[in-house]
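Section 3.1 - Work completed
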Amino acid sequence: MDRPFVVERIDHLVFRVRDLQRSVDFYREVLGCEVVRRRDHLGLVHLRAGVSMIDLISLDGTLGSQGGRGPGEDGRNVDHLCLRIEPFDEPALVAHLARHGISSRGPAEVNFGAEGDGPSLYFRDPDGNAIELKGPSVVSG
């Protein structure tokens, strides 16, 4: 069956967050995302993440309050967000995270992604959402 479309990339991911400003600060300062639009009447902030977007909605905002109980230890709204990065320098990444009081969930490991097998490092944002920083494909030979 022919589809009338082709998936090209992730357009955006939406996280429901407990403290909107704390999360905006995290995504700006730790990951280098840029705020491109705020829609305060909805409790929504749009951040640029490369060619994609990360949208943050406040649990107490118009949109966030529609989703029920928020993220916590006993449940998640999303499993994880994977951001393809370049370069992938594990010691530099770990040091950067540490400067922001963040620990990785272990050493980098090779995982499968859009470009094939490559290094990944995992950590959590302020709301406990898992973030994966993904490096380039590892060519074996």
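Second construct:
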Amino acid sequence: MAHIIVVGNEKGGAGKSTVSMHVATALARMGHRVGALDLDLRQRSFGRYVDNRRAYLARSGLDLPSPDYRDLPEVAQDDLEPGENIYDRRLSMAVAEMDQDKDFILIDCPGSHTRLSQVAHTLADTLITPLNDSFIDFDLLALHDGETGKIIGPSIYAEMVWNARQLRAQAGLKPIDWVVLRNRLGAQQMHNKRKMGAALENLSRRIGFRVIPGFSERVIFRELFPNGLTLLDLKDTGVTSLNLSNIAARQELRDLMAALKLPGVEVAF
């Protein structure tokens, strides 16, 4: 069975699509068979990233390792069982189609609460939650007192993850490995960064996730999207020398992939 990686965050602008594309492509480049789905049926940021990649490869004649991205299959209303949700059927069909011949299935969720996102979280073997390194986004995980820093209670999103864990336990499935990825780390504001790190470590022990570093804020990520490229594709597209920022970004990706601790993955790039 494929190992399912879900990238979930109910706030937009945390870099989910960038993380999804880089993780999926890195796995493909390391020789793994990777399927990919985008559950944001309206925005399709991850899907458009893949579309851009396919168009670029067609134009350039290159054949770069890529995830096998698919749209959710269409289902006729008449084909549903009484009381069955159409989105449940579409997602289960998509996963079943890839489950037999993929090592990994990466599912990118929308930046809002939807039925598809809720169901996808129950499927997650690994859950990656990108989080901007700011207390503005800390609310995604927990309600906290801004003056004392004390945790008041779990957020709606944390409760959804808890419910997904409970459903998996009832079904006899292995626990979700929940990874919170500190994204868009800045070189400045060291005091805020330390406070954020301490708050996340404290919360991680209370609600059960791991904290790993993600990507710093870099121009290169905005430049890669139009052609559907990732940091690992640059040399194959004629970039013979990387600047220091690109080299540092590549190291961040290497560290991220190692920290995920995905089964059967030895990071080699």
